[in-house]
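call fold target=Oxidative stress defense protein
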Amino acid sequence: MRKQIMKSTLTLCALAASFIALPSVASQVDFPHIVTTGYGQIEATPDMAEFSVRVVQSQLNADQAKEGVDSVVDTFLAKLASAGVSKEDIKSSNLYLTPQYQYPDKGQPELVGYRASRTVTVQVMDIERLNDYLDSALASGINQVDNIRLKVKDESQYQAKARTAAIQDAQKKAQSLAQGFEQKLGKVWQITYKQPQNQPVVMRSMMMDSQPESNSYQDSVITIRDRVDVVYKLSN
């Protein structure tokens, strides 16, 4: 009886293994083929930007900290509105308020004040105005720049060019390999594509106690990349 149970168990395990292996076997290519990966990239000059600034204040009580931060943010938002920045291009975060403690060598921690902060993110459709908006932030009392992202407005057209370059790269590689191994390149059997996430140019964060690097973004370029994986059939 024990042997029959063991035999039955082994049979079930073998069947289970065969079912698990079926999808991988079905996905295997069982004919002569070449697998190539094409890469393409296009460089673009940034024509828009997005920056995030923050005001941070420490006061003796929570109300003073809140009022001080809100006043700075309201002033900055008013300056942006007067400069013609659309409300849709501005995002202002809620107040972030934390108590500040002093920790003596002996005894309990002592509350010494409150630290308040708010962040404003602005999308700049005309990159030539970027320095003006940063100057307005400084004049309003903003004391920290979290980051500055340089971007392009019509990224899709650059992505399409990079994709075309990737396709051409894959084709050239396949033709070269087939010719080198004295094979005839057949039709495309499979194309695998997953659009990469291009990262905008990000300037380093900085405190607003000094003037930002006003002209450093003008020499920046954005690289738009793409790739494609292709399986070609081969014939003698």
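return ok
The helical segments are 2-27, 62-82, 130-140, 155-180. The chain has two domains: 28-46+153-236, 48-151.
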